[in-house]
Structures are given as C-alpha cells and as structure tokens.
Write a structure and sequence with these properties.
heterotrimer; A mainly alpha; B alpha/beta; C mainly alpha; A: two-stranded antiparallel sheet; 2 strands; B: alpha/beta; D-Maltodextrin-Binding Protein, domain 2; 2 domains; five-stranded mixed β-sheet; 18 helices
Chain lengths: 294, 448, 312
C-alpha cells in the first residue's frame, strides 16, 4: 500500500468518524439494549430484571398486540399502493410542460408542510358527521354522509384519505426522478409512433423504477410507524380500537403502562417486519427495476 | 440558504458558526433553571388551563404572599402523567405534581412518588378531615401517597325544556333506572329513514366513565386482592342495559348521530345543544352550561338506581385531582409546606370556589355554600358522603384495564359483541395481566 | 437568483441528457398534445383545488369569529374578517402561563431547527464525502450497513435512547433533539453521497496535484459545487424537525420549552374544546413562511433532488 493510499484511508476514516460514533451510540447501542430490555421487566424507574421470554409469550397471547398489528397492516395495505399510484400519477402530470406548473406543484406540496398536529385537528373537524366539510360535500353529490369518526368501519378509511394529503414529498422525489429521463428516448419512442401512455409505460416508468422502489421502501417504513395523526385524532384508538396502531400501542406500553421491556419486544418485532418487507421488495424488484448504465 | 455562505469565504462561515454556537448556548440557557435567590423555589406542575388554572394560580399567589421564604413556581404542563413519569425517570422531577386520582397505585408501585405519612402526621392532616372517598383515593397499601386538590362527584343532569316538550314533568326527574329508560323513550325523537334527531339518555355521553356503569348495578371490577371480576352478572346486566339503548337507537343511526356532536367544551356539546336530554355529569358541568348555554333550563339529581336494588341509591362517581411529591424532588419539605396550605380550609375553598367544585374537606365554611354559583353544590358535596361512591380500582394496571373496559363498552355500544362476550374478553385479558403484574411485583419484593 | 444557482452546476453534469431544452419541447407539440394537455390541466387543476381545500378552510376559519366556525351550512367567507384572531392566537394562554406561548414555541423551534440543520449539513457532508470520494478498507460494507439503518424505526430504539439520555442527564433539555443530528443520518448521507459521486474526479486529482489536503478539497472544491444538494438535505431536515412531534413529546418537560408542533396541542383545551379559529390562525402563521419559501425555491429544490440522483 502506497503512502498516499494510506493517508487517503486515514482521511476517509476521519471524515466518516462522526457517523461511526453516531451509529454506535444512537443505533447500535440502543438496538442491543433494546434486545436485552425485551427480555426484562423494566419501567425506566426501576432497574431491569431478567424475565426470559415472558414478554414475548405475553405478546403472543395479547389480543391488542394482534389488533394493532392488523390495523397497521390494513392501513398500510390501502395507504401504500394508493399513495404510490396517486403520487406517481401526479408527478407524471406535473412533469408535462404545461403552464402554471409552479402553482400546481406548490398546491400539491404544501399540505405536507402543515404541522401534523394542525393537520390532525383540521381533519378531525372536516370529518365531523354533521358540520364537517367532507360530508357537506358528499351530501351535495348525493353520496350520503358516513360517520367517519365514530364508526370503526369508517375511521381507517378516513385516515387513508388523509394520508393522500401528505404525498407531497413522494411527488417531489418522483419529479426529481423524472428529470433524469432522457428526452431523446421519449422522442425516439414518439418517432416510432408510440402514444403517450405507451411512452410512459415503456420508457418513463422503467427509467424511474429505482425511484419507485425507493419510495415504496420509504413508504413501508413510514406507514408502519404511523403515530402522530391517530394519536391526536383518536386518543386510545377509538372507536373500538379501530384506529389503534402499532406505534401507539408501543408508546402506551412504554409511557402509559410503564412496561418498557414489553415495548422493546414490540419494537424488535416491528424491526423484523420492516426488515423482511424491505428484503421482499428488493428481491421482488430485482427483475423489474431498471438501473440505468449498470 | 444554508449553502451560500460557504463560497463567500471564512467570514460568513465564522458568522454561521457563531449563530449555531449561540443557538446551542441559548438552548442550554432556556432549559437551565434560574439560580435561586433568597426564597426556596418549589416547582409545581399542574395540568389545568383557563379558569381552573387561574384558580390554582390564586392559591399559589396567596401561599407565596404568606410564605416569604418559599416561592412556588406554577407551571402548566399538558400530558402531565407521561411528563411526570419521564421527569422522574430522567431525574429532573418537579417538587409537586398535580396528577389524577387513579394514578396513585401505578406511581406508588413504580416508586415514583414519596410516601407522605410522616409529613401528614407532623402537619396534623388526618383521614377524618376528609370526606371518605377523597382521602381513600390517595391512600394505597397502607400509606398516604398523595393528597387531594380539587375533587368532583357526579349526578344525573337533565334538560327541563326537553322533558316538558315531551310531556314529562320537568320537576319529576327519574328516580330509578326503569323510569330513566321510559322517560328516555318519550324524549327520543326519530327523523326520516330511522335517523336519530334527539336522544333521551345516552350512556356513551360524555364517555368518561364508560368503565364505571357496572357499579350502578352492584358490580365490582376486582376483589381488592388478586381477582379481576369484570365478568360478573351485575356487570353483564349493566352492559346489557347499555346495549339496549344502542338497539333502540339503531347502531347506524347512533353512529351518525354521534358523529355530529361538537367538542365537549363548545356550544355543540350534545347536552348543551339539546341533542341529549339526560347525562351523567360532574360538578363542573355548571361552568360549561353557564358559558355556552346560559339559557338552558336544567337540574341535577342523584343518578337513578335499578328498581330491584334500592341499596344502590345515590350512586356517584368520585373523582379527584391529587398533589404528589415525585421521587427525587429537590425540596420535599417546602413542597409539602405548599401542599399543606392547599389542604387547609382556606386554601381548599379558594381553589374549589375558583374551579366551582365541591370541597373534599368535611369542614366547609358557610360562605362557601353561600357564594358558590352552582345551584346544586350541596348535592355534589353530600353525594360522596354516602356509601355508594365509585372510585377507580387502585390497581397498578388500571390504565390498561380502563382501556380494555372502554373497548368493551365500544363493542357493546356498536352492537359488535354481546355484553357477555365483551366482558369475557376483558376478563380473559386482564386476569393474566394482573397475575403477571403481581408476580413481577413479588419478584421485586414490592409485595409479599 | 434560483436560475443562477442552477446554471452554476450545469457544466458539471451531463446537462444535455438531463434537461429538456425549450426548442425540443416545441417540436413535440401536436394536435394530440393539445388535447392531452387540456386534460392534464383539468386533472391538475381539480387535484390542486382538492389539495388546497383544507388549507383554504384553515385560512377561512382563522378569520372567523368563534360562532361562525361551526355554522351549518359551512361559511366560506366570514361575515366580517376577524384579524383579531391572529393577535389572540399569538397571545393565547399568555395570561395563564405568564409568557406568550406562541412566540416562545416559535423561538424554541427555530433554535432546534438551526442546530439540527447545521449539524445535519456539517456531519453528513463530511461522512458522505468519505463514502463517495475516499477509498478506505471496508467502505462499501459500511455504506451498505448505513443504508440498512434506514430500516430501524424510531420506536424500536425509543426506550433505550430515552434511558441513554436519562443517564446523561439530558431529559428536559434540547440536547436529545439536536445532538444526534451532528453524528450523521443514513438518509442524508445517501443523498449527498450520490451527488458527490457525480462531481468529476479529475477536479479532485488536479487539486491534489496542487498539494491540497483532503480537507481543502472537500471545503474548497466539493462543497461549493454541492449547494443544491446541501440545500435539499437542509430543507428535508428542517421540515422533519419542524414537524417532529414524538421527540419533543418525550424529551421536553416544561411547557415553556415546547416546540410549535407540541405547543399547538395547547389550543385543544383539557376538556376537549378547541379554539378552532385560534388554532387555525396559529397554524396559518406556522406554515405561511414555509409556503412562500417553497413557492420561490421549488425549482432549485426539485433540481437539487434530481441531481443527487436517487438511482442506486
């Protein structure tokens, strides 16, 4: 190894050192501690006491754990694909060179800038069965007025609808990805007589498939962690635990029920689920994702 | 914005660094308590806002005036239970915290609050000074862990106008549950397509005691030791009664009706808006009536009892806010000095008058009643003196138990489960939970 | 100004391939184009209106007297504009609390944001530079591990991190909210690394021949060329901090130290009553600067993300 190589290595490690430290202190240690606590009776007020698999056993037969897991899964199952499709469609349209783009972009992006607490409170009111703007609108269209907030069958759909207003970030990332699609390829396709939908399907989508994958994975991680909005809108996951999500139950166990060990066990299960889902999406995408150049 | 300074050389970079360093230093300054000069500073966290907060502030001001060597700093804190736990865990607790009565067991089991036995003895504070439930709620496993601040009790509130409109005598409110049911039927009004326009009585309103209805039928939630008794005939009877309203109103109509209610503290509150004619409510309801519906003609009577259980007459839910000294408090002695002042007749009446509530003390000055604006203040004071008072079980797992009961209530009210099914679910969930909890307490030597 | 910034970077990327020129757009205009453009316009317009409705409602409510906020049918234009709500929103609760909560929360949020954004930009640019342009043993494995950490949800490490900060005596201070930002984060490292790799390596080599140290190359060559990417990272971290609810909920104790996202909850009084008009006025004040900022910087913003090339 030559001396410049050595000094480059040294510089490299030095430059990366904040992250090594951060990784060890804020990730590796908490992750390991979290495994340990998950086998303990622990409440932060008292020293952890080893209880073996007891937390996991309790989780296995904890109905609420399964309910929150199911709620989170159902929510993700609807919010995620809907989010991907809508944000992609919006991004494709926003990429068309039409007038007033700045306005459209801003309009679609700003709802994701509203603080989540305000957003939650605003929607709480928009969804009010009688006074709420949503139902007033639906009534005008003759679509009836569902009791969004008080009926377990409607509370999750309400959250899914709301999630669309937070798509701004995903749209922006898609838009950025679309800027990378070479114009020549689109024009070549046009010369071959491709219609705009064919162009989109055969040129644009494959070109931005890595971005789609990226958004899907970030979406999985984000949706499975849903917390703030239901925490503000539906304290305790009312009605009938229909909006009780995994992260809320985890938070409650840690800070309301003082069961930190139990919460850690839940955290690890969440991590494993996200890990598996990410791996599955990566594997599933291997064939369909097109990496330019490589 | 962030990036521009870099090209503009070291001057801008230095300026940026200075702003960042300044922010860091300032952020430290913001979270460092001011150095104490002269008087001992007692930090007191309280959840109340608006007029309730103002009432406590008046008490604090009075205390500070009388005690030049102690200064109480009253801080308004939302999410006070979580915050207090985090502060105790973090080793930076306040000297006094205003929690809720049902928190005592959980915080005591977690060794998060100080035992006040010796302080009480020294100050001459005795159980006899208090109306029983209000002392009882702060007493746990043979020790005093808290003392009451503002208490409350509940009664049936009813809308006289709606009774009259429905052909009922507004001066003869229901005495028994059966009367309540038939009057409710008279008042209830349906619109086209079986939509609900007005309800006589609705157990889900205001929804704060969904766990408690079993007591009105003689049920209990635990045996005081190690058995959960959610699945008892009395509790099933209560839940059946709850469900019968949902059946009368129709589940769908009920949900649609309820989804149109405004917030509790608003003119669209279901009771204030004339949508629900009769409600179980606390002593504080007067405040909201006078604020949002001053024209409402209303009355309050003890909540009805089942005709076959006259022994359950005058049932009331006792509720209270409490003061505790968190473990690790820097000035426990001065903190108790303040609590002692709140517990004095003078301090307590100042507070309870300000919040327009009843006093937890047996001794009440005549002026208190004379000046109290709530026309039913004597009722609310006398009800908790009876034998039929409901207090939340003193269980460390109560927050979870309450969640489970609330959920059972929801399921029954939505006609998703039968009362027996819903309560069995609670029983099957909470009994192992309690077993495990007691096992862990034993392992730690907290109990034998 | 925004344009100038983009042009700065152009020579460094394969501009011809990446950016459509105006001339090319014209050639692709046909009859079919006009029809589909009208359709796109229509869909975008409707979508924009739908997206803006809650916001419009928010602003409309913020200008109403309280009685009108719950009127049925809903009132879009207040009977008379109630600017006083904004004053009331800002001073709301100051009588009880003894300070002006809104201004205090805004100040706190700003301080945390400054510290987080500065830390994020400073630490991640260093780390990303190392991953992108310096060779050292184990680098690629370390980078893969870094990407994997994006999968660790905060709730998993919430409890031990709380314990860690407790042991450090940091509960009730701002440190738990900003110190970690100075030690890097996977998402920003990833974005910046991708960008740094697009800068021609010849530039570094030339600087090295001139005798520049890695630090000098980083500071004087790479950073000035990376402004759009740095701006994107800064903006993302700013927004995340601005909106963070769980962190302040756990670590901040005294109401006086709360941030805006946590403080806004204060407008929902304990009894579940909400001063709708005041809450909405407060929210409007909170987001107004961000909307203006976005409207004027969006091109740079999107360009910045594009240049970081999210492709793996």
């Amino acid at each position: 190894m030559s001396s410049p190589r050595k000094s480059e290595s040294r510089a490299g490690l030095l430059f990366a050192s904040p992250w090594f430290l951060g990784f060890l202190v804020f990730l590796a240690y908490p992750l390991l501690a979290s495994i340990y606590y998950s086998f303990c009776d622990y409440s932060v007020l008292k020293a952890p006491v080893w209880v073996g698999l007891s937390n996991y056993r309790e989780l296995w037969r904890d109905d609420v754990f399964w309910i929150t897991l199911k709620n989170t899964g159902v929510y993700a199952l609807f919010a995620l694909p809907l989010g991907v499709v809508v944000s992609l469609a919006l991004a494709l349209m926003l990429n068309a060179k039409v007038r007033g783009l700045a306005f459209y972009r801003t309009a679609i992006y700003i709802p994701s800038l509203v603080p989540l607490v305000s957003l939650a409170v605003l929607w709480l009111w928009m969804f009010n069965g009688e006074y709420g703007l949503v139902n007033v609108g639906l009534k005008h269209l003759g679509l009836g007025s569902p009791p969004w907030l008080s009926d377990p069958a409607w509370s999750k759909p309400a959250l899914v609808v709301m999630s669309l207003w937070g798509l701004g970030n995903a749209v922006v990332i898609y838009l950025a990805g679309l800027q990378d699609v070479p114009q020549e390829m689109l024009e070549a396709a046009e010369l071959d007589g491709a219609r705009s939908w064919d162009k989109t399907r055969h040129v644009t989508l494959p070109m931005i498939s890595p971005v789609i994958l990226f958004n899907v994975i970030m979406g999985i991680i984000g949706t499975l962690q849903i917390f703030t909005v239901p925490y503000v809108m539906f304290p305790g996951g009312v009605p009938a635990r229909s909006t009780y999500f995994y992260a809320m139950y985890l938070f409650d166990n840690a800070f309301r029920f003082h069961k930190m060990g139990y919460a850690c066990a839940m955290g690890w299960i969440m991590f494993l689920i996200i890990f598996v889902l990410t791996m599955v999406s990566l594997r599933a995408s291997e064939k369909s994702v097109h990496y330019g150049g490589s | 914005m962030i990036a521009t300074p870099m090209e503009l050389g070291s001057l801008k970079l230095a300026l940026m660094a200075a702003v960042v360093a300044g922010s860091a230093i300032y952020s430290e300054f913001l979270t460092t308590p001011a150095p104490e000069k002269g008087a001992v500073h007692v930090t007191y966290w309280e959840k109340w806002t608006e007029f309730e907060g103002d009432a406590m502030r008046a008490v604090v001001d009075e205390f500070n005036r009388e005690h030049p060597n102690i200064h109480v700093d009253l801080l308004t804190i939302s999410n006070i239970q979580d915050k207090t736990l985090m502060a105790v865990a973090g080793g930076v607790p306040p000297d006094v915290a205003g929690l809720f009565g049902p928190d005592v067991a959980q915080y005591a089991d977690d060794n998060a609050v100080l035992i006040l036995d010796d302080y009480c003895k020294k100050a001459g504070i005795k159980p006899d000074d208090y109306i029983r439930p209000f002392w009882d709620m702060s007493f746990y496993r043979g020790h005093v862990y808290a003392l009451p601040s503002a208490p409350a009790s509940t009664a049936l509130h009813y809308n006289k106008t709606l009774m009259q409109e429905s052909g009922l005598d507004p001066n003869k409110p229901p005495k028994t549950i059966e009367e309540l049911d038939s009057m409710s039927d008279r008042i209830t009004k349906f619109g086209p397509n079986h939509s609900l326009l007005r309800a006589g009585f609705m157990p889900a309103e205001p929804g704060w005691w969904n766990w408690a209805w079993g007591y009105n039928f003689g049920g209990r939630l635990w045996d005081g030791k190690d058995k959960i008794t959610a699945l008892s005939p009395e509790n099933i009877r209560a839940f059946t009664w709850i469900q019968h309203f949902a059946k009368i109103y129709g589940s769908q109509a009920l949900q649609t009706f309820r989804s149109g209610f405004g917030n509790f503290s608003s003119p669209q509150n279901a009771f204030l808006d004339g949508k629900v004619a009769m409600e179980q409510q606390g002593v504080w309801m007067y405040n909201f009536i006078s604020k949002y519906a001053p024209g409402l003609k209303w009355g309050a009577v003890p909540f009805p009892y089942p005709a076959d259980r006259p022994d359950l007459k005058d049932m009331t839910y006792a509720d209270e806010d409490i003061l505790v000294i968190p473990r690790g408090a820097k000035h426990p002695n001065e903190a108790f000095e303040f609590i002692k002042f709140v517990e004095s007749q003078k301090g307590m009446e100042l507070l309870c008058m300000g919040q327009r509530k009843n006093s937890p003390l047996k001794k009440v000055s005549p002026e208190f009643y004379a000046k109290h604006p709530n026309p039913f203040i004597r009722l609310f004071t006398d009800l908790p003196k009876g034998k039929n008072t409901v207090e939340p079980p003193k269980l460390g797992i109560w927050p979870e138990y309450q969640d489970a009961l609330n959920n059972a209530f929801d399921e029954v009210n939505l006609l998703k489960s039968t009362p027996a099914e819903a309560l069995k679910e609670v029983q099957d969930r909470m009994q192992p939970e309690l077993d495990e909890y007691l096992l862990r307490l034993r392992a730690r030597g907290v109990i034998k | 100004m925004a344009k100038a910034e983009i042009r700065d970077v152009d020579p460094l990327t394969d501009a011809g391939a990446n950016r459509p020129t105006r001339a090319r757009q014209k050639t692709s205009k046909g009859k079919q184009g006009v029809a589909s453009k009208a359709l796109i316009h229509l869909v975008l317009l409707v979508t924009s209106l739908i997206f803006l409705t809650p916001l419009a409602w928010m602003i409309s409510t913020s200008l109403k007297p309280i009685e009108e906020t719950m009127k049925q049918p809903p009132v879009w234009i207040p009977s008379h504009i109630f600017w006083g709500n904004y004053w009331d929103a800002i001073t709301y609760g100051s009588a009880t609390l003894g300070y002006i909560p809104f201004l205090v929360y805004a100040r706190n949020t700003l301080i945390v944001c400054i510290l987080v954004v500065a830390g994020t930009v400073a630490s991640n640019s260093l780390v990303a530079y190392s991953f992108a342009r310096l060779r050292w043993p184990g680098r690629d494995i370390a980078f893969a591990a870094t990407l994997a950490t994006m999968m660790v949800p905060f709730p998993v490490v919430m409890v031990p991190i709380f314990g860690l900060f407790r042991d450090l005596g940091w509960i009730g201070t701002y440190r738990p909210l900003w110190v970690p930002a100075w030690f890097g984060g996977a998402f920003s490292i990833f974005l910046l690394r991708q960008f740094f790799r697009t800068i021609p390596f010849e530039l570094s080599e030339a600087a090295k021949l001139d005798g520049c140290s890695e630090w000098r190359i980083f500071k004087d060559v790479i950073l000035p060329l990376s402004k759009p990417a740095l701006a994107v990272v800064a903006l993302f971290s700013f927004l995340a901090t601005w909106n963070d609810f769980l962190g302040p909920l756990i670590y901040l104790l005294d109401q006086k130290t709360f941030t805006l996202s946590l403080g806004l909850q204060f407008y929902q009084s304990q009894h579940g009553g909400t001063q709708w008009n005041l809450l909405m006025a407060a929210s409007t004040i909170v987001i107004a600067p961000i909307i203006v900022l976005f409207f004027f910087t969006q091109r740079v913003f999107i360009q910045g993300i594009a240049l970081t090339g999210l492709k793996g």
